[in-house]
Amino acid sequence: MWLDDGVPRFPELGLDDVQSRPSTGLCLSGGGTRATCAAIGYLRGLLELGLIERLRYTSAVSGGSWASIPFSFWQTGASDDRELLGPILPPQELDHARLTAELPPAYLGAAATLSFRDSLFDDICELKPGRAWVRAVAETFLQRYGLYGPNTPRSPVLSVGARDEILARQEPPETSSALTADDFVVARPNRPFPIVSACLLGPDAGNNLVRLDPVSLQFTPLYVGSLPAHEITYAYRRGDGLRRSVGGGLIEPFALGGPGPRELSGASGQTLTLARPPGLDQLALALGSSSCAYASAIHAIPELNTSSGRVPCLDYWPPRRGQVPASEAWELGDGGTIDNYGLLPLLQRELETIIVLVNTKQQLSVDWTPGHGSYQPHIDPYLPPLFGVHEERASIRLDRNQVFPSAEFAELVADLQAAKRGGGPVIAVREHEVLDNAWWGIRGARKVRVAWVYLDRVARFEALLPKSTQAAVEAGNARIAVGPCQRFPNYETIGANALSLVRFTPLQVRLLANLCTWTVLDQRELFEELL
Fold it and tell me: Which SUPFAM superfamilies match (predicted)?
């Protein structure tokens, strides 16, 4: 267990395998299966260039985690990483026949073509909505890779050595309730340290919140939690408010979901003896909660004001010195409720270089000037608040996210617009001043280099496509979009295809993933210099 000492100190930085890598991170943003397919393409390009091993972290949110966690932990279903991430197809070969062919089952992108809707409807007949959501996500994106079984809950761990060390310190080591090696899933070797972000919405009071006060909840194979400590009064539409301690420490994943100690004292990094919690599938919970976008939205729906178990829940207690509040059920929500990029966790860890994959549905307007009207029709809405430019939006809370000076926002937008006008990948590399942010526990007075990789149409890529595919892309981006490439590459997050939730066609998966792979290969010198 690790406690907040006022300055974030993350335990993985004491590990040689992490510390020996360059001070770099890759953010895989949220955005449903659009973000999943884009992430697959970018990872495939980085793998092709041998750059994965030069990343210290991946930080994923929502749909980005649907790619990052299988990539970090896969056990079965593929023979190697190349089979998992699929073959690289040059744009000239992306004709209708190649695009629409059935996807190989080992290919991670094939998961995006499964019917998540059908899995969810089947599970919701048996479980409460929150648990049904988690199971459906796990069945869709984890099960075929040996990472989920409804009756075999497991906890992630960094290595076989780390797993064996946990097993050796059990007291006593051999009882009917003792952990065994089968209770863990080991991360694949030579991977960046993976972070998946969800959020703690508030105690499960069977009642809607008046105001959202979400707190980051970060899942890793070494710990789960949030280091900055907060005291929050949760105001509900019925009854009194609830004053709660939130955050303040990290605990090992296998201990999550059980009762905590009555009191804590001593130094951070101490070992506690706790009762074994009930079986909790950590990877399923991480993916399910990180992508549960509806969790915050339902607090504005009066008809759901008395529902309990409607979203993923966790028995949670905040690690902190002194008397520890008792464990109670908390509602969890999408990491995108507070940070859809996964950038803020990497700024907490004070990296020198960060690549942010902005896998958005909002194409960039090249003729918009920041400060002239609302930004929401012109640029991804999660970007301006990082610079203190904020507009209220329902069901998300971004007003605590400023980490860069406001004056730097217009310069970044101008660089992105220039890249789009130039016909190449929409990428801008900027050195930003980092500002203090007490809520997130981020220290300022330093610089960070950020490569903003913005998902958008790329004229040079489209010019290489077969004529029939070019025509389909144009039709899909007309004022009245038609055909199989509607809104490519910025597909809708929900309902991109009729009667589906997040299901894509093989054509949508291949075209988007290959655009993103092509982007990395086309910008090879840039990515090699960044990493």
Answer: FabD/lysophospholipase-like
Tokens at residue 79, please?
């023979």
Tokens of 24: 């770099």
Q: Can you read off the two tokens belonging to residue 338?
A: 């507070």
With respect to residue 105, please indicate whether it lies within any of the assigned structural domains: no
Does a structural domain hold residue 208? yes
Other beta carbons within 10 Å of 211: 11
The pTM for the full model equals 0.96
Omega cis (within 30) before 172: yes
Q: Using alpha carbons, list the distances in angstroms from residue 381 to 102, 294, 357.
A: 35, 18, 14
Task: Please check whether residue 397 is in contact with residue 338, taking contact to mean a CB–CB distance below 8 angstroms.
Answer: yes
Range(s) of the domain holding residue 174: 2-19+64-69+113-337
Rounded to 5 degrees, what angle do the CA atoms 178, 181, 187 make? Answer: 135
Rama region for 462: left / alpha / beta (φ>0; ψ in -120 to 50; rest): alpha
Cα separation, 392 vs 397, in Å, equals: 8
| Residue 210 resides in a domain | yes
pLDDT tens string 466-517? 999 999 999 999 999 999 999 999 999 999 998 888 999 999 999 999 999 9
pLDDT recorded at residue 71: 99
**H-helix or E-strand spanning residue 355:** strand 353-358
What's the longest Cα–Cα distance across the chain?
A: 68
